[in-house]
Design goal:
The protein is mainly alpha-helical. 70% of the residues lie in helices and 0% in strands.
């Protein structure tokens, strides 16, 4: 059975189980992927579990599932039967790195995140690269490393401008504002309410700026 039909999440608003808790959705994806017995689909399932468990604060489990996805990738040629927005293995690496940081594995987390960015470039996957850069920026933010956040944010904004990734441009502006605030520089008075483009992105920008200023 093709992947999109086996995994109905997101195919249509009428069919998708909108009210189902995210952990249940992730486990359902994993169960369906096991039936398919397809390595690329399993990596996608591990990605779903890793992301869900990470945001639930279960960092050990998130790291384990992310690693399983990476291990499948390293085991041999993995061709996806469906088109992905971004390579699942790159996202697995990113959330393995973030989980490592929360578990105190600071040295290995940076190596893992660097590997994720390198792999996205090797695959010429610009969507995965943008996500990897953003999550790497978040790692720098967790460590309050303003210079690293500034460097990676510049890369993210440059890539997003070139590829017209509207979602990441306001995030780049938000993070640049945080760098200014963290380094003691003055943030412009109108920075909080400066428009980001589309209405949804305006709300994202405003609430994001408030979060980073308070953080």
């Amino acid at each position: 059975m093709p992947f999109p039909r086996a995994l109905p999440v997101g195919r249509s608003r009428e069919r998708a189980p909108q009210t189902l808790p995210k952990p249940v959705l992730a486990k359902r994806i994993y169960a369906l992927a096991q039936k398919q017995n397809e390595p690329a689909i399993m990596i996608g399932a591990y990605r779903a579990l890793a992301i869900t468990l990470y945001y639930l604060g279960n960092f050990e489990a998130a790291r384990e599932y992310a690693r399983r996805g990476v291990q499948i990738w390293h085991s041999g040629d993995v061709e996806s039967p469906v088109e992905e927005v971004h390579a699942p293995v790159v996202i697995c690496m990113c959330f393995e790195a973030l989980s490592q940081w929360h578990l105190g594995e600071t040295a290995s987390c940076h190596a893992t995140m660097t590997e994720a960015i390198s792999l996205a470039k090797e695959l010429s996957d610009t969507h995965a690269l943008a996500q990897a850069l953003y999550l790497s920026v978040m790692l720098g933010y967790y460590e309050r490393n303003a210079s690293e956040v500034e460097r990676l944010t510049s890369d993210l904004i440059e890539l997003s401008t070139r590829q017209n990734f509207a979602f990441y441009l306001p995030l780049g502006e938000i993070l640049r504002g945080w760098v200014r605030s963290a380094s003691g520089s003055t943030v412009p008075n109108d920075w909080l309410l400066r428009p980001a483009g589309q209405n949804a992105l305006n709300y994202l920008a405003i609430f994001g700026k408030m979060f980073f200023l308070l953080g």
